[in-house]
Amino acid sequence: QVQMVESGGGLVQAGGSLRLACAASGRTNNIYRMAWYRQAPGNEREFVASITWNGGSTAYADSVKGRFTISRDNTENTGGLQMHDLKPEDTAVYYCAARETFSGTYTYWGQGTQVTVSS
Question: Confidence class of residue 56 from pLDDT cuts 50, 70 and 90?
Answer without folding.
Answer: confident
